[in-house]
From TrEMBL:
SMART domains: LRR_TYP. Keywords: Cell membrane, Glycoprotein, Leucine-rich repeat, Membrane, Receptor, Repeat, Signal, Transmembrane, Transmembrane helix. InterPro entries: Leu-rich_rpt, Leu-rich_rpt_typical-subtyp, LRR_dom_sf, LRR_N_plant-typ, RLP23-like. Its main location: membrane. This is Ran GTPase-activating protein. It is found in: Cell membrane. Residues 28-69 form the Leucine-rich repeat-containing N-terminal plant-type domain. One of its GO terms (cellular component) is plasma membrane. GO terms for biological process: defense response; detection of stimulus; response to other organism. Residues 1-24 form the signal peptide. Belongs to the RLP family. It comes from Handroanthus impetiginosus.
Length: 627
């Protein structure tokens, strides 16, 4: 599991008087600068919702993503999530001539392998600058320190940790940001000691309300200079190596609502969020954590080295408003008591030492969207108690000792995208009723005791149009491979960029990503993130018979195909040569015979794969040969 929290940033729209003084008209020089800027950008027009709609015959103040002040100067430009991949390489870009800009948002783009340009300092009217997850690389230039009017500054990087603040250091970079209220540098390599980064922030940012510096390579201890920041309401420091006792001066922050790695919260009665994920906390969770936090909505203590967390905790009565509970890898031995937890949306107790039967109450939590109990010692049946209107999106119960059948009430959870029940002792026929889960993208039933055929998938229905991964390996399935199943997997037929397989909880600004284990050339690989374009079909180590369906050739976006260790016969269908994205093909240990004409498109890829022996596995099949 990988988890990311995105801080909420707000557009601060200052001096936009259109609503009061009528609609302003764009000045000609402003339109020309915008058009020059767009024409120099590299972007995917099929994914763009703003740039592609800029019509030269219309007033540029009415273009998507553009706002103007009363005089017709461009004052706000929002090109976030426009699939931009290049076009701002240096200070000569026409973007930096839009000197009346007060708000600029280029977040969630892909300026891959482009050094952070130095021209942003020319936009000295900026109040809001959001370049989060924009893909820029390297040192953040001193040029940015000229933006003395900034109120909200976001350079955070969640998926690509490639920015750094080294020379100039943090102190020089933010020395002129005296008006700044929100600073987000998550994922930026600052590499500073406690007194360095604490003094830099406290001496330059007197009105700071939010600072978020998770995964920024910061070190401790905390410096008492932080006590100057009396307006602070949000601190985020998770994912750093701050080995420090709880600083007593934090108690003086009357506005503090969100804290990073600190072990006691008794005085923070209004606290709503605690995120101590992936720190170096040790010892027992203090009793004060469970007292007086009636407003707590989010609790994440996962991936720490906590000890003696082995008592049942009455979560329901202590945290009535709790929406997310993350206690993965905490050495828990007993399941938390959850009754009538109507607000709970996320429950992650993976990789603990939990024992006993699966709790009946968990399935009844109607608002629950993510349930992850992976890699524990749970036993017994999965209760058939999922309610009507179930909101579940991810169910991961893999690597336990669960028995019995897949509960049919799971069919009520029509929002489900991920089901992982692998590595248990489930003894059931194929759960055909799962076909009704139209949003399903990952189905993993491998390493259980499932049996019988899967002929129900041969019916000509719209089975799983969004399915990206199906793994039923190492069971006792038999019969023929249903040709219509592969005909109905629409998501595998089109070569396109699939959506990131992570779930966004809008209510809490949280992204959640589950992990999954796949087998490639006999090796188990744990995907900590289910990749954007990852697709896989694994029916290996069963008792399937008959021919390989020709319809497999329609799976144009398939990356991994594994039918090894079955009793398949006949020829390899030539249509497999249409699988242009195929990276791993394993048909070994079957009864395939005769002469097969196997031609893979993109012959340079096929040749490379044969030489490295990492993709094509055809041994032990009685082959005469293939052309």
């Amino acid at each position: 599991m990988r988890f990311q929290m995105f801080s909420t940033t707000f557009f601060i729209l200052i001096f936009f008087s259109n609503s009061n003084l009528g609609i302003s008209q764009c000045l000609q020089d402003q339109k020309e600068l915008l058009l020059q800027f767009r024409n120099n950008l590299a972007y995917d027009s099929s994914l763009s919702t703003k740039l592609v709609q800029w019509n030269e015959s219309l007033d540029c103040c009415q273009w998507n993503g553009v706002k103007c002040d009363v005089k017709g100067h461009v004052s706000s430009l929002d090109l976030s999530s426009e699939s931009i991949s290049g076009g701002i390489s240096d200070s000569s870009s026409s973007l930096f001539k839009l000197v009346f800009l007060q708000n600029l948002n280029l977040a969630q783009n892909s300026f891959d392998s482009v050094e952070f340009p130095s021209g942003f300092g020319q936009l000295m009217e900026l109040r809001y600058l959001n370049l989060s997850n924009s893909g820029f690389l390297g040192q953040i230039p001193l040029d940015l320190s000229r933006l003395t009017r900034l109120v909200d500054h976001d350079l955070s990087s969640t998926f690509s940790l490639s920015l750094m603040i080294e020379n100039p250091d943090l102190g020089r970079l933010i020395q002129n940001f005296t008006r700044l209220r929100e600073l987000y540098l998550d994922g930026v390599n600052i590499s500073a000691k406690g007194d360095e980064w604490c003094n830099a922030i406290s001496s330059s940012l007197p009105d700071l309300r939010v600072f978020s510096l998770s995964n920024a390579y910061l070190k401790g201890p905390f410096d008492s200079s932080l006590v100057k920041l009396q307006s602070l309401s949000v601190i985020r420091l998770d994912g750093n190596t701050i080995s420090s006792p709880f600083p007593e001066f934090f108690a003086d922050f009357s506005n503090l609502q969100f804290i990073g790695p600190v072990p006691s919260f008794a005085f923070l009665k209004k606290l709503t969020t605690i995120n101590l994920h992936a720190n170096r906390l040790t010892g027992q969770i203090p009793d004060s954590l469970w007292e007086g936090l009636e407003n707590l909505d989010f609790l994440d203590l996962s991936e720490n080295s906590l000890e003696d967390v082995n008592e049942e905790v009455p979560i329901s009565s202590l945290f009535p408003r709790l929406g997310s509970l993350m206690l993965a890898s905490c050495k828990l031995q007993k399941l938390p008591l959850l009754k009538n937890q109507s607000s709970l949306m996320m429950l992650d107790l993976a990789e603990n030492q939990l024992e006993g039967e699966f709790p009946t109450g968990y399935g009844k939590l109607k608002s629950l969207r993510i349930l992850n109990l992976r890699r524990n010692n749970l036993s017994g049946d999965i209760p058939d108690t999922f309610p009507v209107g179930c909101a579940l999106e991810t169910l991961d119960l893999s690597w336990n000792f669960l028995k019995g059948k897949v509960p049919k009430s799971l069919a009520k959870c029509t929002e489900t995208e991920i089901i992982n029940l692998s590595n248990n002792e489930l003894n059931d026929s194929f759960p055909c009723w799962l076909r009704n889960l139209c949003k399903l993208r990952v189905l993993v039933l491998s390493f259980n005791k499932f049996h019988g055929n899967i002929s129900c998938l041969h019916e000509n229905t719209n089975n799983w149009p969004n399915l990206q991964i199906i793994n039923i390996a190492s069971n006792n399935f038999n019969g023929i491979l249903p040709a219509n199943l592969f005909r109905n997997l629409k998501a595998l037929m089109v070569v396109k960029m699939l959506d990131h397989l992570h779930l966004y909880l809008a209510e809490t600004n949280i992204y959640y990503q589950d992990s999954i284990t796949v087998t490639v050339k006999g090796l188990d690989i744990d995907l900590q993130k289910i990749l954007t374009i990852f697709t896989s079909i694994d029916f290996s180590n069963n008792h399937f018979q008959g021919i390989i369906p020709d319809t497999l050739g329609d799976m144009k976006s398939l990356y991994i195909l594994n039918f090894s260790r079955n009793a398949l016969s006949g020829h390899i269908p030539s249509s497999i040569g249409n699988l242009r994205k195929l990276e791993s093909l394993d048909l070994s240990f079957n009864n395939l015979s005769g002469r097969s004409r196997l031609r893979l498109e993109e012959s340079h890829r096929a040749a490379k794969c044969r030489r490295s022996q990492r993709v094509l596995t055809l041994e032990m099949m009685g082959f005469v040969g293939f052309d």
